[in-house]
Design a protein that fits this description.
The protein has 476 residues and is α/β, with parallel strands linked by helices. The chain has 20 helices and five strands. Bound molecules: flavin-adenine dinucleotide.
Length: 476
């Protein structure tokens, strides 16, 4: 009997429940009487752009798997070299992993497959982090969808039948534990993030699911746009690192009648949609999905840099925007409604390139995900899928009034505005009881809060003029 080792290469699937790649690795090892080595490769190419919050969260996910009994070894280096060397060392003939569908992951996996094959080692890519594998939902003629609604119709027909698999008990598996752990690089660098992150791991995610289903799911359709209510699932970091699979969520939704569950299912579909778009168009991680919008004029230079800094630190003078940007700094996460408002503000009020904002988000977000982030930005910037009309310019004041009518969210993150009444919380410069704008700042209430760095009405016209100009150019 062949008793070689089987390697399970963990990536964005850091869970024991419903993990088909892990199940396949266990089955293969049982089949030949060998043991399994569980490994995570800390790849410098991914560590660099990850941002401290994601690295901290990743580290906690790995710890949590170990606490659950999985002897997961971390090795450092380029997987193209690390995995073939490891396979040789432990005499492995197969490596299992969950498929990666991002631009870098696809290239890397192809390289690893070739490098392993040179030594007669097989790479088995099983399943994906999505309900449906990117690239598989197609129009009748086989072409990819560019608009969400028709994609979601086809997705909905196939998604229903995907049921979650069982939880694996690490105690029942013969693990290989002789490979020394190299550990993740140190993330507590000076000047690094001090954001308060959610607890990581499957148990913590299960707790979040319970709270969401019990307290928020029924009214999700009505409450999901209210950032003060915090009535969304907050499962995006768990989905990002595969601590849960969206199949598990769909299975739960199956029993829930009503609009809340329907709308939540649609949100999960958006995640699949953007992964699908990026799979077909990897270039859209860096450039506009709509070719014509690649000619859009954005500001740069010291003045733009100063405005960008004000935006990053939550000091634009628009309370709803500043609350969102400060939530991002405090928690490494921001409510979806506010993500749209701050993204629109950067691009259409400050005229700064969406890619700059997207990069800042990827540095800060604990759920930072290339497909959802770049396409969330492109949608807001009017450069992306879904024919987002170029004239959709979010008004930072009316967004606040509509979605945070009491100013609760603003006051949570912008303490300088604690004394401002509901009437003026989204436009403190209009508070006549405090005299004019200048005296308001001198006289208490909003005493230390900054002045508006731009006038929305003026910048909206400027944004429309720029979009008009690019649209008037001949189509490439
Ligand atoms: C500019 C911008 C940048 C974004 N960047 C990211 C990102 O880096 N990573 C990320 O996971 N999401 C991103 N989103 C989408 C969305 O804001 C987050 O998924 C959501 O806020 C996460 O909170 P939640 O888990 O409580 O969401 P819920 O409302 O509970 O939704 C459930 C799940 O559905 C998915 N989902 C919801 N809305 C979207 C959406 N618009 N696009 C794609 N998936 C969605 C997420 O996986 C989410 O966890 C971005 C949106 C915008 C507008």
């Amino acid at each position: 009997m062949n008793t070689s080792t089987t390697i399970m290469w963990f990536r964005r699937d850091l869970r024991l429940t419903d993990n088909p790649a892990l199940e396949a690795a266990v089955a293969a090892a049982h089949g030949n009487g060998g043991s399994i080595l569980a490994v995570f490769v800390s790849d410098p190419a991914l560590v660099k752009p990850s941002g401290v919050n994601r690295l901290r969260y990743l580290s906690a996910c790995i710890r949590s798997l170990r606490d659950a009994g999985l002897p997961l070894v971390v090795l450092r280096g380029n997987p193209l070299q690390v995995l073939p060397a490891l396979a040789k060392r432990v005499r492995a003939q197969r490596v299992f992993c969950t498929g990666d569908f991002g631009p870098y992951g696809r290239r890397r996996d192809e390289g690893v497959r070739r490098a392993l094959a040179a030594d007669d080692v097989e790479l088995h890519s099983v399943d994906s982090s999505y309900v449906l594998e990117p690239g598989t939902v197609r129009k009748g003629d086989g072409s990819p969808f560019k608009v969400f609604t028709p994609f979601s119709r086809v997705w909905g027909q196939s998604a229903a039948s995907h049921m979650p698999g069982p939880r694996m008990d690490p105690g029942t598996v013969a693990w290989l534990t002789t490979v020394a752990d190299e550990g993740l690089p140190d993330h507590a660098s000076p000047g690094g993030s001090h954001a308060t992150l959610p607890e990581a791991g499957e148990m913590a995610a299960a707790g979040r699911i319970r709270v969401f289903v019990d307290d928020h799911l029924r009214a999700y359709d009505e409450m999901r746009n209210n950032p003060a209510a915090d009535a969304t699932s907050r499962l995006s970091p768990d989905l990002k690192y595969g601590v849960i699979h969206p199949r598990q969520l769909l299975a739960l939704l199956g029993d829930h009648p009503g609009e809340g569950a329907r709308v939540y299912r649609t949100e999960l579909c958006w995640r699949d949609f953007y992964a699908d778009v990026l799979w077909h168009r990897p270039d859209t991680a860096r450039s506009a999905f709509t070719p014509q919008m690649q000619g859009m004029h954005y500001d740069s230079g010291p003045h733009a840099d100063e405005r960008f800094r004000a935006w990053c630190t939550g000091n634009t003078g628009y309370p709803f925007i500043d609350a969102g940007m400060r939530q991002l700094l405090a928690e490494g996460w921001m409510h979806n409604r506010v993500r749209m408002a701050v993204a629109s503000f950067l691009v259409k009020d400050l005229h700064i390139d969406w890619r700059r904002g997207a990069r800042w988000f990827m540095e800060q977000l604990v759920d930072g995900d290339l497909a959802s982030n770049q396409h969330g930005w492109q949608w807001t910037a009017g450069t992306g899928t879904d024919a987002a009309p170029y004239f959709r310019v979010f008004n930072p004041v009316s967004q606040g009034k509509k979605f945070d009518p009491e100013g609760t969210y603003v006051k949570r993150y912008v303490p300088e505005l604690a004394g401002v009444t509901k009437k003026y919380i989204h436009e403190p410069w209009l508070d006549e009881t405090a005299g004019d704008f200048t005296t308001l700042f001198a006289a208490g209430g909003a005493s230390q809060y900054v002045s508006r760095i731009v006038d929305h009405a003026v910048e909206r016209s400027e944004a429309l003029a720029r979009y008009g100009a690019v649209r008037a150019e001949p189509r490439p």
